[in-house]
Amino acid sequence: MMISGNLLWVLSGTMLLGIAAGITGTFSFLQKQSLVGDAAAHAALPGIALAFLLTGQKELPILMLGAGITSALSVYCIQWIVSFSKLKADAAIGLVLTVFFGIGVVFLTVVNRSPIGNQSGLNNFIFGKAATMTKADLMWLFISAAIIILVSLFFYKEWKLLIFDPVYAKGIGLPIEALKATLTVLIVMTIVTGIQAVGVILMSALLIIPAASAKLWTKKLSTMLLLSATIGGISGVTGTFISAIRTGLSTGPIIVLVAAGIFFISYFISPAGQINKYRRKMQFRKQGDIG
């Protein structure tokens, strides 16, 4: 099969997105903020629909701005609920996720019933459709993903301290809250960048699964980042390619299925996987029998 120039650009874009998601997802995973990313991803939908309703245009920068605002608002709502109520983080995340996504579905219904709604193509933002991305859309994706990767690498040492030794990080004068806020902004930016390719429902999976897979192979942060970025990039390219050759399949579910496949392989054959656990258990039993 011959790969067209446009498909090559799309494949490059989703690979870069997967790498960016793998890197930020690792920091998010280790900071135990993965479910916050899930809520922020679902909360992007009302921002997209509202931006279209207000402007009547499907311009990606405008839609990304709307998605970014509602995603950031959802994170703030979660933090506010946890701080000023008796609800725990998991309950707050579930509440905010469902409310924002429900509002998004209502707005999307209004869009689809409008005179230009059928031509808006906003439904593609639910599960993702990378094939519909224009060159201008891809340029935004390239720029955003590159910024995410560069900022993540720039704050690597600070976030490493924040994750593994927050007491020492605070003791040497690092701005803990500012670093946490920067990570949150980057997570939201990653979600907003990938919603057209992967979709609002499944974008959080691209943040969580590569990081979870990498964690099974290593305990070293630098190696985990490299593995997570690689898994994310492979998932993005493979899922997009399958979606492109099988017309009608949404990109997001295929990318997530590829990532999930890599996770299950890692779950069984990695150093921390089930096969090695079983071997160690059997060796321990043999040593006990000999003793």
Walk me through what this model shows.
- The chain is mostly helical and 291 residues long.
- The model has no long low-confidence stretch (mean pLDDT 86).
- Helices cover 80% and strands 0% of the residues.
Shape: globular
Helix- and strand-based class? Answer: mainly alpha
Number of discrete helical segments = 14
**In whole angstroms, how far apart are the ends?**
61 Å
Mean pLDDT across the residues is 86
DSSP strand count: 0
**Biggest sheet, in brief?**
none
Report the portion of residues in β strands.
Answer: under 5%
Radius of gyration: 20 Å
Low-confidence stretches: none
Helix content: over 70%
The helix/strand series, from N terminus to C terminus, equals HHHHHHHHHHHHHH
